[in-house]
Protein 1
Amino acid sequence: MFAYLLRRLLYAIPILIGVNLLTFALFFVVNTPDDMARLQLGAKHVTPEAIERWKSEHGYDKPLLLNHAAEGSAQFTDTIFFQHSAAMFVFEFGKGDDGRDIGNEIRNRMGPSLAIALPVFVVGLLVNITFALLMVFFRATYLDLWGVVLCVVLMSISGLFYIIAGQYFIASLWKLLPISGFAGGIGGLKFILLPVLVSVVAGIGGGSRWYRTIFIEEIGKDYVRTARAKGLSELRVLFRHVLKNGMIPILTGAVVVIPTLFMGSLITESFFGIPGLGSYTIDAIQAQDFAVVRAMVFLGSVLYIVGLILTDLSYSWVDPRVRLQ
Amino acid sequence: MTRMGISLLGTILFTTGLFTTASQLSGCSDNWNSPYPGTAKQANAVYSAFSERPKHLDPARSYSENEVEFTGQIYEPPLQYHFLKRPYTLIPLTAEAVPKPRFYDAAGKPLPDDAPSAAIAESVYEIRLRPGIRYQPHPALARNAAGRYRYHALDAAALADKATLADFAHTGSRELTAADYVYQIKRLAHPGLSSPIFGLMSEHIVGLRELGATLEQAAKARPGSILNLNDFPLAGAEVVDRTTYRIRIKGKYPQFIYWLAMPFFAPVPWEAEAFFAQPGMADRNLTLDWQPVGTGPFYLAENDPNRRMVLKKNPNFHGETYPADGDAADRQAGLLADAGKPLPLVDEAIFSLEKETIPYWSKFMQGYYDSAGISSDSFDQAVRFSARGEPQPTDSMRDKDIRLITTVAASIWYVGFNMLDPVVGGLGEDRQKLRQALSIAFDYDEFISIFLNGRGIPAQGPIPPGLFGYVEGVAGLNPYVYQARGKQIVRRPLADAKRLLAEAGYPNGRQAKTGEPLVLYFDTMASGPDAKSRLDWMKKQLDKLGVQLVVRGTDYNRFQDKIRKGNAQLFEWGWNADYPDPENFFFLLYGPHKKVATGGENAANYDNPEFNRLFEQMKDMDNGPARQKVIDAMLEIVRRDAPWIYAYYPKSFGLRHGWVHNVKPNLMANNTLKYRRVDPELRERQREAWNQPVLWPIVLMLGGLFALIAPAAIAWRRREEGQA
């Protein structure tokens, strides 16, 4: 197990370098350091000297990937790519182009992101599983049919529609909750309810359909027939046997998501004014802040790799037949 | 009651309880939807929003509107614009008087005020400060009993428990001195600050460019060390005595006085920079760029640009009072009701981050924001036009006592011709006629009506209304595009455009020699469905002449690149005034500022020697008939040459609630928050009345849910019983 984990962690290093390189290439295909400087310095009275000064101050006055003017290893290290990427491997993210410490921002924003993502994940999982089990219970009846139709309808509606409709009806028309905003501590509860409710409803269609498929597959297996033959009630069969075995793909699918919950949701956070990592990423993309963009992509990749490793571990935990070597 | 009925009732009570508990736990406000948990009722506060978090709050760096909105209330330059007077008038803020420049020749001899510009080698502005002005309480200025700064030698252990400025137990203050202003002028040259006006100011302030080079060398020689600007003299800015300083300007630059009303020239105490430069501070986002230290009416009490920024009344503010010298219209509008009262009139201002327009608008309508702009989505809900074409708030707005504020911005939008382009550029008569024809064809009167909901005025030249040089009515029309019909200004008929086009060598939009159609290229950053209709409209305008317009959409960076390299043919651009002087618009057409040759602001690369000569003459003149005469001559040249299609001067529409007072749009001033007054009691009453929660949907939703679940439950029970 230890050797397996070590191997997976070592695999992560080239993956992260590759992700970094890709992010770097994509970013600088669209934006040059001069573009970044102009955006930071504003549209007025910007002189070529001011651009050069900004680039020099922020370390963008070097060649992108290969420094022909340097010698030895400096050809690779005295470049924008190396200078802006190496420190990230020890989680030193440095400063954004606006001068704010990225690590500090990430620490501050992780909480608000989790405050939305965690309840959405837990409540969403419970609601989707319950709804899926109900459809399975009434399989091949009109209730199942209309349940699936409902799921397809819910899946077909844009996520933005749920947000706008939720904000309009619940906050604007009925005045039950604030339309947007955030507060720390217990005071933040009323700001969380609406985005959580909207996100959970928006996820019911896709989630429930997927879980229904898993449960339907399980319910046709021999052990289920045996359980019924023993005289167990249908509810007991579903919750004790089908759910337990169906949990293997559900669990592994869910575990991979858990670490990335920290990264927040791009659209939800933006619309509901949640100061989380999702809105941080969106802002950075709009501001062409490479330092923040590459830090967030790097962090997302790390968390995804962690999620995949956890998934492998959870396989061996929920299915004793699986051994990690 | 059946078991199912009981469970339904229980669910309803639980859900209602959840909403109630969430609302009650979240603060003192009774309104469930209040976005201000923990805020005291009837606080004498302004509630506002910002859509984009500010990048910089350092007065040497902040320039954009969303940054100056904060720095303008905290930092105090020596001058400010009078809140009520129009045309815009500079008055002293921390200075005792508006300084008058003294002129000197190359030998250093004084010259009279009316000396010709060519003879003036240097202008000297001497600014004397009012005594007794003090900084806001701040830990950087805190001293111990021995008179030493408490927090200027902090080590890692001392900083361990400090996350915000509030974690420093002691604060201090001191009197504002002239040295603070000189210190800030030096900061404009600091290589680590990248001040956006360094390039411009180094052309004018004596020695600033040299100081920048010296500081850059010093920074390279001692990487990582902090530059103490007090060790670096600046020839163009010197302290005369404790409350007086002197700025030396190369030659004559009358517009410099306007810069003295911007936060770039506000004081910064050296102690603040020394305090924030300590190791460990920047890691906590404790920097001067994010934690302003000023003498203004407000200080930044809460600085969370990701969520909200709170300005609070500066307890050390220097007794400025509300102006008493407004005109009759101001008196009638109630703008003189607070004359003589000490400023600021509110205790705090709460700015919440609101990126999306829908929540912003909803909160305004619920009374949680005091004022709001009007997006196109909400325009019809908010504004209607009277029979005379005047904008008015709709009945639903009037019912809520919401007032409409309109003003013409000191800005212009134009379609530029690249004057270096072989087809549309050049100063030849045929090219002039081609551009004039296109100027007539682009019907911006129609554009304003269709796309701007009437929020604009067709432009007659580069100078917008409200600035010296702009002439109202038919006397100020652009005769190449418009004509007078009585007192009305009407666009010239399309026949005139067709005639001009034919005279330019393109009869019916085709080249006279080859018969090939004239194809023009329009570069734009606009994209998406909203932009498509506008771009289609543009094509349609040239279709009227038989000219084809090809739209080349691109992103912001590529667009800027094309303009810089002169690769565009037609493009859309705009300009907001830095200060209320025609020079700030004419310089956009000044030859030596050509974008391609010099990287200047002349994006059209227009270069007419006669215009350039008049510009050099006009920029140094005082406002008066003589200057107006030169301006008229310049306007005639740029209208005839038509390097731009003068599109429109945008009109800004805003709304405010009836409890907000002392609102008069001032497009130059950025420190008007101190004049704002609110009626907190009325606001609270209105909020209560407008935000009563509607509970029946909860009952209905839960009932609906129950209606879905009940048959399932019954079916399940039947099935279970059937199996048994």
Protein 2
Amino acid sequence: MYTRKSFGLFLSYLLVLSVFVLGCQSNQNAAPGQADAPKNGEAAGAANQTVPELKIGLPSDAGPLNIYTGNIDYLTELVFDKLFSPSPYVEKPQPWLAESAQQLDDVTWVVKIRSGIKWHDGKPFTAEDVKFTYEYYRDGPANRHTHHVSEVPHISKIELDDPSTVRFTCAYACPTLERITFADLPILPKHIWENVQNPRKYTDLPIGTGPYKLVEYKADQYYKFEANKDYFMGSPIVDNLVMPVIKDPTAIFNALRAGEIDISARPVPAELEASFQNQANMKVVQTAPLSLIELKLNYEKAPFNQEAFRNAMSLAVDRQAITDTVLLGKGRPGLKGYPHPDSPWTNPNLSTPYDVEKAKAVMDELKLTDQNNDGVRETADGKALAFSLKVPSTEPAWIRAAEMLKEQYAKVGIKINVEVLDSGTMATVSQTRDFDLVIGTIGAHGVADPDQFVMSHRSSYLWNKKIPYPAMDELTKQWMAETSVDKRKEIAFKMQELFNKQPTSIVLYYPEEKFAYNAQKFDQWVESPGFGVINKFSLLPDGVKKAVAKE
Amino acid sequence: MGGSWFSSAFGKKCIQYVLVLAVALTINFALPRLAPGDPLEFFFGESTINELTPQQRQQVEHELGLDRSLWQQYADFMTGVFRFDLGSSIKYGKPVTEVLADRLPWTFLLVAPSLIVSAVIGIAIGAYAAWNRGKRRDLLFLTGMLTIESIPGFWIGMLLIAVFSVSLGWFPSFGAVPIAFTGGGMEYVLALLKHMTLPVITITLATIGGNFLLTRSSMLDTLGQDYVLMAEAKGAVKRSLIFNHALRNALLPVYTHITMSLGILVSGAVVVETVFSYPGVGRLLYESVIARDYPMMQGVFLIITLGVIAANLLADLTYPLFDPRARQRKQVEESP
């Protein structure tokens, strides 16, 4: 009865809807020229001419850039400034929010604050903000900056001498405060942050002093920035930055090719390089990121807790072969060890020799011999030297490197079992230290900042301060007592030498990165060490750009 | 009289669904926590987390509510569900319900038209092919549909992007709306449609094969029935024969299949949403799994569970509308 009618109704409903949908589709087919992405960017990019808009594709999302809810340095620094710039990874950072810094004695510094700077909400920036920020990082909820105020170095007192002068007093010598600490910690507005209850759940858009204001943020979708025309270092040369988050690697390069974005913050993989170089308007720029790919040894476990054994582990790795095979030569082998050789704070004479015979000799001396002739060495009590090597499934190059390590270690009688795990599991593994060996990566903050090298030996990354390490502990003591920058550097060089002889992190290679961009739209990218080309200096006027960027 | 509701077919169904829901919720709670990994790492990035001292870690865990006992978290979750308070997402720092409400419409926008188009076209071609069984056009459709059916969805999506976005530039390759859009209402709708076209086509193509094959085989069954022969003998015209006599009966299993697949309306198309960077529930699920964002995962799983249960309920309740036999059986059962 009603069924026939309702059935007919149902069918015609479906039909109408489908016609509607199809209609819409064909409608769009009929108007192909109106795709919203400009196909051939209007000629722009000449020096000192402002560009109305740039679209930057991001491979990941960093939350609303409030430091406590995720962090990507190059984005955070569009909004926030530091006392000195660009970073601790250069020879001599320039005064930025600070006008000058002066060391009064071994443990005291005074910083004069630049006047006339305003926060994005119009409130004036003051020395109070600096004092608040340093104290907040030190005493508030922990973040990556905390131990650079509370431990290495330890700033015990922060006082205002007058409304524009901040006095920092350290608990022990701090000769590099200006060159490292001041160039590392972004300054927060006191009037906002003193009212934040739980910074981990604080999702308001950030207020900074930086060249760009974040005006819109949609989690996992996009960021939209507007130029801060009153920026104290000069009005930015791009008015608006639109940054869609495109996590899929194929999708982000398709969008770049289709002209929907002007640059991808994801480095171009070697196999796509040529296709971008051949495309009109496109350029490919190479940068040397201050990062490295490392094989981490769990120094808390036997036999990795033995210095001589770690020495043998390092001697057995043919880093050149790994780079040649896995990276097709595009990258540098880790022949200079840890930290990154491009950092001004790294000993230029470090080396990590490859010597199979010596590795074997060292293990023989340790009484790690192959007693049952199965090709794998055993400890005195008969336990085979068989270890698991954990690698994240998201990094094909690392997996190939792991397979090569397996072969290389087999040559010296060590058995490696490669385990490929999802990134969530990998994270827990390295956090709980439930591993023998893992492959991972670490960026500029970890491998170009000398304070972090010391800190990593205390925080458990490279060593744990609760475990005695007499030789290193002695050097650390000297380092902390040293009051001159140069002499401290010398001590740091000795620590690095010691580290690489018996490393807890074996550097496999230093990656290279290439970025493809639409040069017709914008061609003024400059590299800032540790930040790549997408950084605030690229977007600032010529004079400022030259002062801080890498030549 | 009091017990009659519980003993009625509808009441029984409801109790059954409540039970299913309770079990599903418990599994939803347990699964994320059984997986190795925890949210802290994602929250800070690996290098930062390794720099935190154990005390600092504990402090962060406390701030995020991860230090409470499992039972406590379970109790909070179960009571929260009924108050529609699913807690706060660790990754997004916002209430889970708010994030979900933000994503659901986008998923509906993609999946609803895809399912409809896929059903209508799948059924039409399926019926046509069955009627022309064994002829060249039937074979053509059959091989074509089998081919499409066996192509993975993400690959269809990538092909469409390569052709229509990169080469021809007709459609955008990512996102749901143009970012920083300043145009007016009509332009906005147009841009919206433009953004959804390729993903909709992708999901349609990925699901159309199933509808086609099911309709075709069901139709073949029906066409062999005596009553169709009878109708033909009575002199029914071809159109009436196909639509009124054969297809109507053949559609019953297809209808069930389609209603059940409505469940994916909410879970969305994880793969397609990822390929097109579309901000739907599917991609949200993927993101929260990667981030080990327990409250968010629970929220998404809950929505999927509810979606599947609702789709089942819908199929159960509306089936009699289409099949008079089910209706009559019910009357027979319910008569004293």
Protein 3
Amino acid sequence: MINGLTVPVTFNILSNMKKSILYLIILLGLAACSSGGSGSEETKKVAVVISTLNNPWFVVLAESAAENARELGYEAKIFDSQNNPATESDNFENLIASGFDAILFNPTDADGSIVNIMKAKAAEVPVFCMDREVNADDAATSQILSDNYSGCVEIGIEFVKALDGRGKYVELLGLVGDNNTWARSGGFHSVVDEFPGLEMVAQQSADFDRNRAMEVMETILQAQPDIDAVFCGNDAMAMGAYQALQGAGKADAVKVFGFDGAADVIEKIGEGKIVATGMQYPKVMARTAAEYAHEYFNGRREFPQRVPVEVELVDAGNVDQYQE
Amino acid sequence: MKPYQYGLLFLAFLLLGYNSVYFEKLSDRQAGAEADFDYGAYADSLYYQGMLQEVAAVELATLLADIRNDADAAFKNYGNRLGIGNSAYFMVKGSGVITGITEDAIRLQAAGVGDVGINTRYIFGNALRDASGLVKLTDFKTNAEFNRVSEALNALVRTKVMPPLIDALETGDSIAVVGAVKLSKKALDDPALMITPAQIIPQ
């Protein structure tokens, strides 16, 4: 009897334990599913908003930023603002509504882009500017920027030496609403303007665009055929200006200076066809911005407002260090 | 309407048109927007009260020896790098005998170092500002404003401080120099030493 009693009791206990274990397994399974579900929801989303993807330099910046964000474990999507503040504004509204958690941002306009950053800030979405500065120190979480001014001071010194302090020159500016345009022009003129033998006969915007630079240069050459040099605010414009000079048969007589460190200009410096450029590091800026976003997600809240990234002068004397 | 009234109307139109349209350089317009702060006065104070009195310069020979021993530590101890990059600015001092004077630079045979250049023509950029460590990036709202500090400081040194000192120097003179030097970790084997001078003191 004892055994007779014991067996059903034991059976019942074992049966209850099995049920409990089964429930426990089911619960754990559900919890795992639930955890997995919320885990995928918790995967942070990083937006990379770029002024334009119509320029290879910005494509490198955008893709590097997205790649770094993915390597850090986040979803990343690139938005192209097409150099249009209105498109940029739409991008910001869309990505905020879509629940992006951070923005790696290359602005279209130093003033016009501030309102977009403020929208993100109001939605508690941190914004890390890359390469282009906005005229506010309380909008973006941090701004990682090429030291355009210092880079162009060095180009300015190289320019004066190459021309021996005398001659007529043209300046092709980038986008007039972009601080980089003025930082580069300012650094260059902080040197060149101190040499009265150098006369700027034309200063015109070509929007950082190669084709536009070629057209602008062709027009300028009609009015100013006897120039000695051209300073361009980026390498795309330097290539456009060089093409125009080639077309006019003046490529050997006119010294061309660029800025960016683009591969085609580095090659031209190696061939002695372009005098100098400033090597920027878009991948360093992109990586730093992505790492800052990562640190923000991990709780960091204090960031330097502006982080300058060194620009290095590339000329015939050191071009071999930069050729791939 | 009578003919003279048409004439008056045309003149008024010309006058209005003339006063409505003007041309100026894009760069001048940009510079005009930042013209409120007295950068000249700030640079004067930075140079005379800050740079000449507060900034400690490292002996160039000591810096070079320390770099040979442990470059990272030397850059950290003596250098100033704003942001990210391979180079840093150092405030250095040294002394020696002038071996040559050109339009661009003074060549100096510096004690314990060897041949060193003192840049007398191209005093531009952020070398003095950054080597001094006296101005923070966050002291100014934008990079453009921050860079104008350098321009004012350079202008003071280049046009007021240096010319009378340099004019009095000749090859063979002994001098001491205090100034900024830029060194890059990418080129430390045989760095071309060019000092942007803050002070030149005849010995």
Protein 4
Amino acid sequence: MIQMKISPKERLAIQRQLMPEQDALERAHNFAEVNLGFPEQLALLEAQRCIQCKDPKCVNGCPVRVNIPRFIKFVAEGNLQEAARSLLGDNALPGVTGRVCPQETQCEAECIRGLKGKPVAIGYLERYVADWAFQNANGLKQAPAAPTGKKVAVVGAGPAGLTAAGELAKQGHSVTIYEALHQPGGVLVYGIPEFRLPKKIVDLEVQRLQEAGVEIECNVVIGRTYTLNELRAKFDAIFIGNGAGLPVFMNVPGENFKGVYSANEYLTRVNLMAAYDFPQADTPVLIGKRVAVLGGGNVAMDSARTAKRLGADASMIIYRRTRKEMPARAEEVHHAEQEGIQFEFLVAPVEVLGNDKKWVTGLKCIRMQLGEPDASGRRSPVPIPGSEFVLDCDIVVVAIGTRANPLLTATCPELKLNKRGNIEADENGMTSLPGVFAGGDIVRGAATVILAMGDGKRAAQSIGDYLKAKVG
Amino acid sequence: MHRIVSKTRLSPNVTRLDVEARRIAEIRQPGQFVIIRRAPKAERIPLTIADTNPVAGTISLVIQSVGKSTQDLVAMEVGQAIQDISGPLGMPTELIESGRALCIGGGVGTAVVHPIAQGLHQREVPVISVIGGRSKEWVIFEEELRRLGEVVVCTDDGSYGRKGFVTDAAKDILTAGGITIVYAVGPVPMMRAVTNLTRSFGVHTVVSLNPIMVDGTGMCGGCRVDVGGETKFACVDGPEFDGHKVNFDLLADRLSTYRTHEQSSLDRHDHNCRIGLGK
């Protein structure tokens, strides 16, 4: 399709297009995707809003440095083939990032059109192009790169590992990913719910990587099935992206009552193990009438919205600071509110209460006020003496973060860690061991999908340089 | 996929499956376990590696069929394959290098004790095993353990070996003296009784815990147990712990979390079997 030339004035007059979504009341009872995706007409209109800056700031806001104006220009011209080629060249998992990136603090925060009005809906356009690419995969197949004869192992098939693997395969290296769980995707399949990121999308992204030559071995736990040093002996380089898989609990009394879950367990049961489909699927999950979720990040939003979909009458976010400090993505908070999730701000848990059979019956909380800003610049919450109260609930989901899982690092004492147990890596992802690179949550602590992907992409670049230098 | 190469019924509800899993067969150590997922939509369940044949590349899984998932598993036949096996997981048993060990197995726990006794035997540590069951047909792994040392069999009804609980026989052995360490695996009440007994003798006692697990890599925290007032994850910190420090009440309580789910799943399963929907 050839677009008519439009004048700058006409371009600026186009309003940001709204993402069609499932009705809030309806979707609060199903696990189908909330956002339905742009139809062609909306995508073309939205793409025309991009003014094609000479010095595009949006690209600086993107951790994987997608050439945003270029793919959007192709969309505006109706050339989706080239739009997809351009996007896939920059980003190994656009179907994922188009759905789960916090665009409002990254690319869209930098968009010049945001100065006066709303920024270009870069995330929605990315999703549009990615979904088109899934439908038209055959026309997008790339000839494989000339093999370098080098072998690279990737630990973990999450966002960091998948991205690194895709980039390394493009460079012509032979890549094997080792995944601990039975299905590739990491947090994309065990953590992020179906209603936000359908498993089908992750499967399609993984399939594309496999078609590009990436081998994936599931059920291999590095640190148990093989040690890191065994991999070092077999491969020319290694990328570690095994995530931050160790849940943090609150350390309050009653935390081991039946009905207290880590968000990791709650979401893994429902997402990876499909407990929402029990008994058709074998894995159960407790269904709460009143569910209290502790935390204010995306994982907390995912847990609260999952509880609602499982049938909770009340699903509550308990957060010790205010709305402003919540780290969750704006769209998730908005969607949660639409779905009837309740928010208790400036409240912290003190104790989990239970009955004589040790089932959760409530959460003793205390009200907080904001004090002086802490090291992170956020004002730290301080308890208000005497303000304790009891919140009735039968499920508590703890979503206050994760720590580094020591399973892999414990088998390789030579690998330098920081005091929190995270692997030390430089800005190129290089660790203290030659040929061993790392990125994502195992380096950063709990962060985001896109930051992990950025790490994977940068590390793949430096692995490429490392392997070249090794030859020369 | 992991092909089942042999299947043996060991007791009325305990079945042994020998399954292809070459890498795990080569490197597993006593005390370690695997997580298996029989098929899509099936649960991930932890199972101890009861024995191994590194040459054939097989591991032995000993399964007590109590719920839908385990019934589905033991309904599998030789030649069929288990979809996923991940491992070996958990910390290996801390095996003593000298002294004399008492290994106590109750019910299906006897299969878990077996690799520990094997490891001790390899280190030339003398092993005496006390194993028990309700009656003769419930006693398992007797022959295998006899190859590794003396075995005392106990049955609740006296139909085989000594009448009474394993703790009765263990008490006599501990009274006679010379035991450096006790390894005890079985139902929670049995492990609790054993640790109460050995505490009075001041003998270090290792137990293997079987809490509910999902991933088996420390990611979910579902398997948390209280050991000496500290929360530990059985999948990565255990599954074996100092029995004198384990909070068995908490373990038993958390094991009951999904009892109603298990029952409804089983009822539905049995119903489907009877009317042939599962066929």
